[in-house]
Amino acid sequence: MTFTHLFTPLNLGALTLPNRMLMAPLTRCRADENHVPTALMAEHYSQRASAGLIIAEATAAMDGCSAFGAEPGIYNEAQVAGWKLVTDAVHAKGGQIVLQIWHGGRACHPLLNGGKVPVAPSAIAITNDEIHTPDGKFPYTVPRELDDAEIPGIIAGFKAAAVNAKAAGFDGVEIHAANGYLLDEFLRDGSNQRGGAYGGSVENRARLLLEVLAATIEVWDSNRVGVRISPLNSFNSMIDRDPVATFSWLAGKLNDYDLAYLHVMRADFKGIQQGDVMTPIRSIYQGSIVGNMGYSAEESEAAISSCKLDAVAFGVPFLANPDLPTRFAKNAPLNDPDPSKFYSAGAEGYTDYPDLVA
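and the corresponding structure tokens:
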């Protein structure tokens, strides 16, 4: 099969992409103990510079919001310098890369944050799962409900992260409002049961995301900013009573911003929550939409050719195939991923996946 549309250039806001195969953000826990990106990370990302755009992994916007232990941050000079190694390496290979800025919310744990209790919109813990810490696996703790007076500090943290991302040489930023982390926790009513200005109606639940977005576009032109959402994903105990209504409203509101793109995760990691969120979002959102979760090359080509999507973000396929566009172009077989190494330390299962042999 010839994938004509996947290889068609695309303007995502101010970003001109050579193809429509994006690398999805993939947290791989290869930063050092101080959340500083490493030379190994620079190698990993530069290997995948043939992606139309790399969306770097979830990166802590501020101190004290770790949910993985070895994820990178972007809140101090050492982290900025570490990320500069990454962006320089990607740019040297002709690639483009944006940074996903993030707060772990209730998915954080005191053992990963110097004893600090995690914060969330409401004091509701993640259930039916455990978190990995240096001391072993533990249940998630009940988070502390953020006071309204603390929220400006969260917004300021995201804005500072946007400033630091620019200093680190990124081509833009993606605001992480998906997968049961802080901004998503405010968006969905299963995790947001507070009253006041940030709870209740969808307008109020979306307020924090929109205020973070407004602060971010004071730093970056809006056409270099993306937003990622996951309307159906039940990961981290997430649910919304009416995800189509919630995210249709949000899609319409985001039309007020000249974003680079809206990045939509179409499904549920666990397969629990089912439905079609892509069709209503496509009918409402007037900008570029990047689809994600389980797309094959064939389905991606069809979705782009029929204008259902503008681009597709590939996660695990890019992890296991640093030369994924070349493999698609040649209809070549893909490397098999090794899930046992997804979150391990070191090069194995990270930078040692082979390129296609000519």
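(Above: one complete record from the training split.) The domain at 10-62+77-102+148-341 is CATH 3.20.20.70 (TIM Barrel).
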